[in-house]
């Protein structure tokens, strides 16, 4: 009895040790891929705009939590798929089964790892995501107040400010001065205004979280409510723009809110706002529990994919993730339109993929071939035949 218990613990430890290395590789790879789209802009801010490297490092830190919410389940799927693919490819799964260990008996180690991954995901969604989103917004306001070049580019129509478009023919980022300016202001939709100025300077006011354009030698063109037109020439004109509207927490973006704020909207909130909060609440909670769903999917897929190598395992994990997030987007769209209640809109993809995972797990446990197990080799062979013949020609 003691010997059997010792052998079981040894087996569990052996399977568990296979998962962390590919998980860490997946976390680094997926996080880097998601950050690649931001790296060019961040590098531009350091080289061309003179933003301190420390501020850019803080930006990256604020950007990471929202990415981790997705990369943790992605890395978990990849790690379990590669781990069981390796065990199956080396015939260790066959050896375990010959010793009386079924696929169900191999399930505890990956489930334990997915439990830790879910806890990490929950911590990210409860604490890190609101911290990262709100911190990034505040940092961008601070940087914008210290450098006009961050929010304004010369010879480009810039829409960095809400309901405003700003154009500058030339820009001196160090002196915070501009020439050949055009400002189109639609903050008052009943009286849109277009301002032309020969030159201007940008002055920030950290106390009020605003910036002021000090324009010189220009004209103001304003449309009136009854379709009338009015033009005023000026030598000096100050235009104040709020970077942070100072709005209360109730009207912040849902991505910046805590779970408590999402679950308890303020009195008098509009139905659309309440729906948006409910959808975000269930979506945030559903993502951590996708780790368990991916575990049930990855084990049978890894075992069936034993001879195709790590490259195939990586591509297979990408395909599963792609289908999952397509389902996630589809259910969210149905929730936004009110066709699904927020609970089903958030948890629907998990239920759908859980059914698929249970089905594949049972088929593999009973050693039955999966419906699409021969699809990948056929596609690979067809690809070789088609493009191989073209290469010979």
Helix-strand layout with pairing:
Blueprint (H helix, E strand, L loop, with lengths): L1 H16 L2 H28 L5 H37 L2 H7 L9 H39 L1 H4 L12 E9 L4 E9 L7 E13 L4 E14 L5 E14 L16 H5 L7 H34 L4 H28 L5 H24 L9 H18 L1
Describe this structure in words.
Helix 5 crosses helix 8 and helix 8 runs antiparallel to helix 9. The chain is elongated and about 90 Å long. A hairpin with a 5-residue loop joins strand 4 and strand 5. The chain is α+β, with helices and mostly antiparallel strands and 393 residues long. The chain contains eleven helices and five strands. The protein has two domains: 2-143 and 264-392, no CATH class; 162-242, no CATH class.
Please give a quick description of this structure.
This protein is α+β, with helices and mostly antiparallel strands and 393 residues long.
Separation of the first and last Cα atoms = 67 Å
Structural class: alpha+beta
What strand line-up does the widest sheet have?
1-2-3-4-5
Low-confidence stretches: 245-251
| Annotation, overall tally of beta strands | 5
The total domain count is 2
Task: State the major sheet.
Answer: 5 strands, antiparallel
Number of helices, counting only DSSP H or I runs of 4 residues or more: 11
Shape: elongated
C-alpha Rg (nearest Å): 28 Å
Helix content: 55-70%
SSE pattern: HHHHHHEEEEEHHHHH
What labels would you give this structure?
393 residues; 2 domains; 5-stranded antiparallel β-sheet; elongated; alpha+beta; 11 helices
